[in-house]
Amino acid sequence: MKRSAFSLNAARMAALALALGSLAGCESLNDWFASDRVNYKDTPSAPALNVPKDLSAAQQDQRYIAPPASLALGGAPQRAVTAAGNATEGTPNAQDPLGMHVERDGDRRWLVVDGRTPEQLWPQLQAFWQENGFTLTTDAPATGIMSTDWAENRANIPDDWFRRTIGRVIDFAYSSGTRDRFRTLVSRGPNGTTDISITHSAMEEVLTGQDKTSSRWVERPRDPALEASFLSKLMQKFGLTDAQSKQLLTDARTNTAPAQIDKSAGAATLDLAESFDRAWLRVGLALDRTNFTVDNRDRAKGIYYVRYADSMEELKGDGLLGKLFYSGSKSRKPGQEFMVNVRAKGDALTQVAVLDANGQVDTSSEAQRIVSLLHAQLN
Q: Is residue 1 scored above 50 in pLDDT?
């Protein structure tokens, strides 16, 4: 990974100003920088968001407030003990002895937890991201959407001789030149299960100009391996061992159905040869892997409310970087919102369409682009 010119120069200038006597106390970091390690805990976070003085906080519906993780009777359920001796968050059964399993569609994976509702698992999900060094920017149990801020994986910083010698003293001056963000979608599955997916978004700082003294942020592809790593960590949070979680990832069950374009309605829609429950989940995953962000969703109506997301602008305004350098910028208008409708056409057939404000199939070029993107993601 690259380091920005600013970060590199700042590190070396700070190093020259420090006493070299600190060298003797430094430890080797070779073990820390194993290829499968992640470390977002040392990333500074922005202050918590507060409601502006001229606005009042919205009233929360008590039905959607998850119980604290410490509650037992009447709150968070007690864990079940499996035949393998795990105290698992899921409910073990003949099909899933560990109380959970992983399903996949291509390189997209999601966790299925047996016998638990989204409300029961929500507190553990909140704690999971906080324990891994993230601040939640979206924490909405009513819609099942949870998003983190942009954070830096400190494990990506090269372990060179300079950092090994005095890196402990000025480690804050180093940067990997990358930022990651994760979105968790929590859906109510069939037969009392809960589906949990984790989607990765990434930005990278690249040097520009002939002399490489300036830089800009560009979008980086999502990392399916990093998503799988966090799913593994989440399974361990829910009571599995490292080996068990990795085995479930290896044994992930294929759950896919091709999407067919239907133009009989005068505009393109999609037909999925599967039930509404499966289609609802897969459409959410597909949207999450495009530049359209799910702001809200209503499962009863079968509607995802999405908008085009500019990752660069969001990175500028999010986290410590945005607070320091972009606090004076004008408020950005949200992108145009679209309604993606998922509705059952039968027990094993589901239609996906983009609707306009009147609830009719949207024939605009932007809406048809969303259909094309979904078609590509679902096949």
A: no
Q: What are phi and psi of 349, to 5 degrees?
A: -145, 130
Residue reference for tokens 């992640």: 38
* Structure tokens, 54: 């001229």
CB of 247 closer than 8 Å to CB of 257: no
217 lies in some domain? no
Say how far residue 97 (Cα) sits from the centre of its chain: 27
Residue of 226, 179, 242, 163 whose CA lies nearest to 36: 226
Mean local confidence (pLDDT), 80-92:
93
Region 341-348: mean pLDDT is: 88
The model carries a pTM of 0.69
Query: Which residues are within 8 A (CB) of 220 and not within 5 positions of it... i.e. 6 or more apart?
Result: 178, 202, 203, 204
Residue 310 CB neighbour total at 10 angstroms: 14
End-to-end alpha carbon distance in the chain = 32
Number of domains in the chain: 1
Cross-strand bridge partners of residue 274: none
**C-alpha count within 13 angstroms, C-beta hemisphere, residue 259:** 26
pLDDT at 3: 47
Spatial separation of the C-alpha atoms in residues 276 and 350, rounded to whole Å: 6
Say if 379 falls within a structural domain: yes
Handedness of CA 52, 64, 333, 49 (dihedral sign): positive
Rounded CA-CA distance 168/171 in Å is 5
Whole-number Å distance between alpha carbons of 168 and 191: 51
Is 336 a member of any domain? yes
Counting other chains too, the contacts that 324-327 makes at CB distance below 8 Å and 24 or more residues apart are none
One-letter identity of residue 146: M
Per residue in 11-56, pLDDT (tens digit) is: 444 443 443 333 334 433 343 333 456 777 755 544 444 545 555 5
Provide the mean pLDDT of the chain.
75
- The answer as to whether 372 is a domain residue is yes
H or E element that contains 311: helix 311-317
Provide the CB-side half-sphere exposure for 95 (13 A, CA). 11
CATH number of the domain that residue 376 is part of? 3.30.310.170
Domain ranges, residue 358: 257-379
Question: pLDDT digit string (tens) for 174-194?
Answer: 556 788 999 999 998 888 899
pLDDT at 154 > cutoff 50: yes
